[in-house]
Specification:
Chain A: Belongs to the small GTPase superfamily. Rab family. Chain A: GO terms for molecular function: GTP binding; GTPase activity. Chain A: It is found in: Endomembrane system. The complex is a heterodimer of chains A (219) and B (662). Chain A is of the alpha/beta class and 219 residues long. Chain A is built from 8 helices and 6 strands, in the order ααβαββαβαβαβαα. Chain A has a single domain, classed as Rossmann fold (3-Layer(aba) Sandwich), CATH 3.40.50. In chain A, β5, α6 and β6 form a beta-alpha-beta unit. Chain A is globular. With 662 residues, chain B is of the alpha+beta class. Chain B has 4 domains: 197 residues, no CATH class; 135 residues, Beta-Lactamase (2-Layer Sandwich); 136 residues, Dynein light chain 2a, cytoplasmic (Beta-Lactamase, 2-Layer Sandwich), CATH 3.30.450; 158 residues, Beta-Lactamase. Helices cover 47% and strands 14% of the residues of chain B. A 6-stranded mixed β-sheet of chain B has the order 6-13-12-16-15-14, sandwiched between helices. In chain B, strands 2-1-5-4-3 form a 5-stranded antiparallel β-sheet, with helices on both faces. Chain B is globular, with a radius of gyration of 26 Å. The chains are: A alpha/beta (219), B alpha+beta (662). Chains A and B meet through α3 and β2 of A and α21, β9 and α22 of B. β2 of chain A pairs antiparallel with β9 of chain B, so a sheet runs across the interface.
């Protein structure tokens, strides 16, 4: 019995070096969801993090913070997501949330042309003030409402290409492309930030030690 | 009460006419004002007369008397001396808003009529009007005296607010108790409070001032800018109410132009209460018979709620651009306001300027306090642990103070949205009592389904630090069993008047078993069992017919209210009781004709109310209408003794009591 147990422990112990490698490939990064009110930011976040969807999602106040840990390409990625409120009064606070973010998802509602206009403004603002290494994604949400569509996928795609974003049409309701969107961001990150290659912690923790005043996210 | 008001208004109206005969247009009893206004009305009065004639010709006779009675009662606020500026203002508003005129907004037209009578008593038309006024008055007065239901049928015909009040008065008992159709619906089946099922949010968003249903709501709240732009309306779509807002703005600015401030207008069953807050105007139109002081406090709270969301800094926007549209800035906050307005009828904190605590064993509350206290110096400015609208514990490591109203508004803000329940949130919030010009940042998370932790910091980048603090607090609260005890306390409910039964008159001090609400856990099963022997009168409740009480500790700025017991099992009865308490509170504090009182004993057909105010506490108690006075007083003494014994469990002690503002 004793020998067996020892053996078992030994067996269990064996993968430890691998595990440490695994830990070293643990990455966590912060992303921020921006967009007009009612575009579906919270729904996207909730679908991704909890797999839930509510037909009536109450509007976010300030910003909600969600985390999700997933294995992406053999590394474990912890997504820290700032789901910001779309109301105008919170606009001036957005820098607080996107300043430290490694990725931003700009969400618009395909059935609402105004929200697409608002999304373009967010892209401009991020290009102007954000981190140059920021990975940006444009998500045309509510793809399930194809019949009421106002913004064609081609239009979103064209705008995204012009501005170096990647584009997806998503539906938080049917879960279409939601996980793909977040995975795609995770895959793009090492490319966008070669200095923080895989195997390193891709947080702003290291950065924040150098410039603590600048980062708010992911300390 | 009704009778007296009507009598008063009658005599006031006579005064009014007397003054008219003296050829002085009495826009205000404030003489200066009246003089300053004299020039303008002569012009507008002729217009107004034309309007009235046009209008009256469209109405049948019953409507006429109707209107006149309204006019007449509009005059009644003359006693408070601010009516007539309202009349004048209405005229201005009406000229801005011809739509309201042709559709015969009952309120506006009534007031306009009265100003006609004020201004042009010589004209034959208005002479007729005056006699009509008197008729109308006797009619409504008789009606009220004899049976509250009968005049309402004659009132039914008018358009506008009066129609609303008429129809709801027809449903007799619910009239004063229910001010909202949503509640009315609940009311029909519910035998116990269904507040939980109440969902905050905009009601009847499709209505506007042209729809009859909109006019029938018993209590309207409006926020508008001093340029007349609608900012918030309790009912209906703000954009569609632009014309109506302009009318209100015209009334207010008319009076402001003469260097005065309009406070309220009484028009029939309705009173219109105004509050000016810098560039913002707040208006309530209510048929709920609440004293205007109470409504003004409610407007103050609405304004404070707005400041909580946007800070006073928003006023600068109006300096830059007087036509600034504030609607977009308040996007998605309808439910915050509607939740607060709902609280005006349900939450005593809205008029007591005090907060209430969840009853908890002393040791548990201490443990909760210790968990909140254990913070780094750079940590939160305030930490607050709440369960629903009740405080579990409150700490300010840096000895800053937070006012009870700020607690109310903050918890209202968070309770009104379910979006906080699922995630950690971090958002800017301004505590008007602490600093109305700056934002604090609030970290909010629900630790379980009821318990919510608030951590406030001045550091906009403080999220991760507060998140860490929350982790630590959560661990300690679980280790010390606080969360489980809180869940128990929620299940157990608050104080019950039936528990007073435990004490025999011969025992001046409660025996140790019952002196703790936790020792008598099973007792509330007694509640509802009619056969409990008890001194005093018939009815179920506490001894001597005690139904309910609210006790407010002046030093702690905290109050405790008993749970509703069986005689008060309908929402309308409970609402009526709160309204009665509000009136009582006002008369105990007000500097009105009666002045502040030390003790009051009032009996009406629904309850006996006893209030008692000392330097340490205020007690408001409601009894069975047949309760005996001396035994009621004795029971009040016992309640006070009982609460003093329970003090450590029902109040949060030692939380920097003297540093509270307010």
């Amino acid at each position: 019995m004793c020998r067996l147990r020892d053996h078992a422990q030994g067996f269990r112990r064996r993968p430890f070096p691998d595990l440490s490698f695994f830990i070293s490939s643990f990455r966590s990064f912060c992303q921020v969801l921006l967009g007009d009110m009612g575009a579906g930011k919270s729904s996207l976040a909730l679908r991704f993090v909890k797999g839930q969807f509510f037909d009536y999602q109450e509007s976010t106040i300030g910003a909600a913070f969600l985390t999700q840990t997933l294995a992406v390409n053999e590394t474990t990625v912890k997504f820290e997501i700032w789901d910001t409120a779309g109301q105008e009064r919170y606009h001036s606070l957005a820098p607080m949330y996107y300043r430290g973010a490694a990725a931003a998802i700009i969400v618009y509602d395909i059935t609402n042309a105004d929200s697409f206009g608002r999304a373009k403004k967010w892209v401009q603002e991020l290009q102007r003030q954000g981190n140059p290494n920021l990975v940006m994604a444009l998500a045309g949400n509510k793809a399930d409402l194809a019949s009421k569509k106002k913004i064609e996928a081609e239009e979103g795609q064209a705008y995204a290409e012009e501005n170096g974003l990647f584009f997806m049409e998503t539906s938080a309701k049917t879960a279409q492309n939601v996980n793909e969107l977040f995975y795609e961001i995770a895959r793009k990150l090492p490319k966008a930030q070669p200095a923080q290659a895989a195997g390193m912690t891709l947080t702003d923790r290291s950065a924040s030690r150098l410039t603590p005043a600048k980062t708010t996210c992911c300390t | 009460m009704d009778n007296t008001t009507v009598h008063e208004s009658h005599s006031d109206i006579e005064d009014l006419f007397d003054e008219e005969e003296g050829e002085r247009p009495c826009y205000l009893s404030d003489e200066e004002h009246a003089e300053s206004v004299t020039g303008a009305p002569a012009v507008s009065s002729s217009e107004m007369e034309a309007d009235n004639v046009a209008k009256l010709s469209n109405l049948d006779i019953s409507d006429n008397t109707q209107e006149e009675s309204q006019v007449h009662e509009g005059g009644s606020s003359h006693e408070i001396s601010e009516t007539t500026p309202g009349h004048q203002g209405e005229e201005g508003g009406r000229s801005n808003d011809p739509k309201g005129l042709e559709l015969g907004d009952g309120d506006g037209s009534a007031i306009a009529t009265s100003s006609t009578t004020d201004v042009g008593p010589e004209s034959t038309d208005s002479g007729v009007l005056v006699t009509d006024v008197v008729d109308g008055d006797t009619l409504s007065e008789d009606g009220i005296q004899e049976s509250p239901g009968s005049p309402s049928s004659s009132r039914e015909g008018t358009s506008g607010y009066l129609a609303g009040s008429g129809s709801s008065a027809a449903s007799v008992c619910s009239a004063s108790g229910v001010d909202e159709s949503a509640d009315r619906i609940l009311n029909q089946e519910s035998t116990r409070p269904t507040r939980r099922s109440w969902v905050p949010g905009k009601r009847h968003p499709d209505e506007d001032d042209t729809s009859l249903a909109w006019r029938k709501h018993k209590k309207h709240f409006f926020i508008l800018s001093n340029a007349g732009k609608p900012i918030y309306s309790r009912y209906g779509d703000e954009h569609k109410l632009a014309g109506f807002s302009a009318t209100l703005q015209a009334i207010m600015s008319f009076v402001e132009n003469s260097g005065d401030t309009i406070r309220f207008v009484k028009a029939g069953d309705h009173q219109i209460v105004f509050l000016v807050k810098g560039p913002l105007y707040l208006v309530a139109i209510s048929a709920t018979e609440e004293p205007d002081e109470v409504i003004r406090c409610q407007l103050e709270l609405l304004h404070a709620q707005l400041i909580l969301i946007l800070t006073k800094g928003v006023e600068k926007c109006f300096v830059k651009n007087s036509k600034f549209d504030m609607r977009p800035l308040l996007g998605g906050t309808d439910m915050v306001f509607s939740h607060l307005i709902h609280g005006f009828s349900w939450n005593p904190a809205t008029f007591l300027r005090a907060y209430t605590c969840l009853p908890l064993p002393y040791a548990i509350r201490q443990a909760a306090g210790a968990a909140l206290q254990d913070m780094p110096n750079t940590g939160p400015l305030f930490s607050l642990l709440m369960c629903g609208s009740k405080v579990i514990s409150l700490m300010s490591p840096r000895k800053s103070s937070i006012s009870p109203n700020d607690i109310l508004l903050l918890s209202n803000y968070v309770a009104s949205s379910d979006s906080f329940r699922t995630t950690e949130s971090f958002f800017p919030v301004c505590l008007p009592g602490y600093n109305p010009t700056a934002f604090l940042y609030a970290y909010v998370q629900y630790l379980d389904s009821d318990t919510c932790l608030f951590l406030l910091t001045a550091d906009p980048d403080g999220f991760f630090q507060l998140k860490e603090c929350r982790g630590r607090i959560g661990t300690i609260l679980r280790q010390t069993n606080v969360l489980a005890e809180v869940a128990n306390a929620v299940r157990r409910g608050g104080l019950r008047v039936e528990h007073l039964l435990e004490t025999k008159a011969s025992h001046p001090v409660l025996d140790p078993k019952t002196s703790s609400i936790f020792g008598s856990d099973g007792d509330h099963e007694l509640h509802g069992s009619a056969g409990v022997p008890r001194e005093g009168t018939i009815g179920i409740g506490g001894p001597a017919g005690l139904w309910h009480f609210i006790y407010r500790s002046s030093f702690l700025d905290q109050y405790v209210a008993s749970e509703f017991s069986s005689p008060l099992h309908t929402t309308s009865a409970q609402k009526r009781l709160y309204r009665a308490y509000q009136k009582l509170y006002t008369s105990m504090h007000g500097a009105g004709a009666a002045g502040p009182h030390k003790m009051q004993y009032r009996r009406d057909e629904r309850h006996v109310l006893l209030s008692w105010r000392t330097s340490d506490f205020e007690l408001y108690a409601a009894f069975d209408p047949l309760a005996d006075k001396s035994s009621a007083v004795a029971v009040c003494n016992r309640v006070c003794q009982w609460l003093r014994d329970l003090e450590s469990e029902i109040f949060l002690l030692g939380a920097t009591p003297f540093s509270w503002c307010n």
